[in-house]
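Lecture 7, part 2: worked example. A protein chain together with 5-hydroxymethyl-3,4-dihydroxypiperidine.
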Amino acid sequence: MTDHFPDGFLWGAATAAYQIEGAHDEDGRGESIWDRFSHTPGKVFGNHTGDRACDHYHRWREDIQLMQQLGLQAYRFSIAWSRILPQGYGKVNQKGLDFYSCLVDGLLDAGIVPYATLYHWDLPQALQDRGGWPARSTAEAFVEYAEIASQHLGDRVASWATLNEPQVSAQAGYLQGRHAPGHTSLDEMMAASHHLLLAHGWAVPVLRRNAPRAQVGVVLNLQPHTAASSNEADQLAARLGDGMQNRWYLDPLAGRNYPADVVAHYDRSMAYVLSGDLEAIAAPLDYLGVNHYFRTVHRSESTADAEVTVQVSSDKTEMGWEVYPPGIQEILLRLHREYPFPAYYITENGAAFADEVSEDGAVHDAQRVNYLREYLHNAHQAIAAGVPLKGYFAWSLLDNFEWAWGYSRRFGIVYVDYETQTRIIKDSGRLYTKIVKENRLK
Ligand code: IFM
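Predicted complex, written out as structure tokens:
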């Protein structure tokens, strides 16, 4: 079977600043919460840090050549807030702006469309010291940052995303403590989620003013939450799981307030939601970015801070995530049915496997090849069913710093030898090149 994608379908790959840039203390960059967290012993696998990462800060020209070699049409990257505003607000660091300006020009010269994300988890530490995302002032500082970034890059960046996966920023960072800043408070998590959404909503008109020709959207991590059985308690657990992860973010963005069942479940004061906030959060968007990896299957014992989930298939990635390709189709169809946004992009999709360099010098990542084919086939099915899916970004361009897993999990379609910084295009990268070139799967 041949799956032809629509003409103009955009093919890209994605990365994030802290995961690839390195150069953590160069050219005036300020400390971020991930610098602080990764330098705290015991927080990250092997005490790995992003100090050097893929050294992209110095190797971005070669990395653009690599993108050309792969045939990429678009590149989704994030901007490190603390490179531009080392304290999160106030004094601007021109060298930080220059770095992203050169990167964007380099991409345009190479015929690659720049997709920028403003916030991919690396809050300036100075803002965390003033309360972090649970504080409203962080949302105010974000608007200042969005203003400066879009004033300088808005004429050239085709598409802006305000936030990447605010649910993970709030939940892993302020409730579960497994991400920076490592806190474990439900109240902080809830306030953080609100201020992240507010920061997004306030930034949208700023981006529209400074970048009138660009698309503006936000990126959420979304997945189907299904029940392990038809029993009513399992069904309710799945509904709640969906509420906490998906609807908590989708509903306010779609102008529907926070979901009543989840508000009742948390049963906490939400006094930080002020008059006008929900209107701001519901600013109309050009697209919704969907990061999708796996589904979650629930048992009834799930609670606010612990989901009881079931491993359904033995086909898993190195993250322990189920390989379930229909999930990408299911989530896209559901979004289009229940929350029609004008357009969707898969802004991340991919898998970690234990890749090795073979004797022939290549990386034969057969499982990722299969994953890519199957997930793309299902994305195509969603398009065929009428979902306005406009593009796909593989996660990730490069193996990189996988947050609390350090360098122990490889998601790239390009292998990185961290000692030598050699890059090797994996078999999945070769397959991707073919798909991009032909705009179809065979
Ligand atoms: O590496 C992350 C990325 O930063 C955000 N989305 C999920 C990826 C894999 O865990």
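Residues 16, 19, 165, 291, 348, 395, 402, 411 surround 5-hydroxymethyl-3,4-dihydroxypiperidine (CB under 6 Å). The chain has a mean pLDDT of 97. Keep this in mind for problem set question 3.
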